[in-house]
Amino acid sequence: MHTMWKGTISFGLVNIPVKMHAATENKDIKLRQLHKECQSPIEYERKCPVCERPVENNEIVKAYEYAKNKFVVLDDEELQALRQEQGDKAVEIIDFVQLKEIDPIYYEKSYYLSPNEGGSKAYGLLRSALLDTGKIGIAKMMIRSKEQLAVIRVYKNTLVVETIHYPDEVRNVSDVPNVPKEIEMNKQELDTAKMLIDQLTTEFNPEKYQDEYRRSLLHLIEQKKQQDQTATAKDKPATGVATNLMDALQASLERAKQDQPKANQPQQLKQPKKVKKKKIETS
Predict the structure, then answer these.
(1) Is the pLDDT of residue 283 over 50?
(2) What pLDDT band is residue 182 in, cutting at 50, 70 and 90?
(3) Kind of pairing, strands 5-11 and 135-143?
(4) For the whole model, what pTM was predicted?
(5) I need a labelling partner for 237 at 20 to 30 A (CA). Which of 19, 47, 116, 212 fits?
(6) Between residues 74 and 131, which one has the greater pLDDT?
(7) Which is it for strands 91-98 and 5-11: parallel, antiparallel or unpaired?
(8) Rounded to whole angstroms, how far apart are CA atoms 69 and 65?
(9) How far is Cα 20 from Cα 5, in angstroms, rounded to an integer?
């Protein structure tokens, strides 16, 4: 499993060297966009609308737009210094809370933690302490240039980091439009709804649930492959400038060939026109 982060997690005076691994993966089927005419993948270029030309990577800088078309430019060195300052810190567990106290709306992404060299005993100590107390740890850590609020808990004998949103990242629920206030319910309707919930209540088994759309799409793709309903992109032609230049050179060569016989043909001396002598009639 790929290691995406190495660091130290601490609680009190206990330091745990750990490695972090992505716990989930995106199984979405990515579809490419092709040009309908020639079945070639569509490309998008970074272009400056003012200079009207493509922009290379070394010409791009990062900036924060604090007002419409008003920016504060940030150098890569400045950003790197901030990341380094935060990244060098150990991930310290700030608080311990009950898992049920955190609403699922705060959860973002999950990562597995494994002990790094020399960290197995401390890793096991934190795992056992969390299991025995039924608590989870709240910590801050730098992941991909962002300081994340995170939960550290146990999942199937493995420590897991769950990144969670900061409170100001969760939109105010009062801003949701058209949410009805208290509505009087018919008792019979409510009892029927509760009965239906009871009948459908079961233990959660994640293996029971499948992405039916993805399975159907994969089946359709495989079916089209078997029926040879496929497309192959054409080779990318030479750049437009070179193509135009070659066209111009070829046209010039053809014209030169057409003009060459005329240029090399020896010029014939013009013969003087014969003057017709007028016949003089005598009387």
Answers:
(1) no
(2) confident
(3) unpaired
(4) 0.66
(5) 47
(6) 131
(7) parallel
(8) 7
(9) 5
In whole angstroms, what is the distance from residue 97 CA to residue 164 CA?
Answer: 14
What span, in angstroms and rounded, lies between the C-alpha atoms of 80 and 77? 5
CA gap 72, 84 in Å, rounded? 21
Dihedral over alpha carbons 81, 82, 84, 90 (to 10 degrees): 160
Angle at 181 (CA atoms; ends 176, 186), nearest 5 degrees: 135
Q: Phi/psi at 99 (nearest 5 deg)?
A: -60, -40
- Say if CB 79 and CB 64 are below 8 A apart: no
Architecture, CATH, for domain 5-24+92-170: Beta Barrel (2.40)
Kindly list the domain boundaries of the chain, sorted by start residue.
5-24+92-170
The answer on pLDDT for 101 being more than 90 is yes
- How high does pLDDT run on average in the chain? 82
User: 142 — phi, psi (to 5°)?
Assistant: -90, 120
Residue written as tokens 């990318």? 236
Angle at 47 between CA 46 and CA 49, to 5 degrees: 145
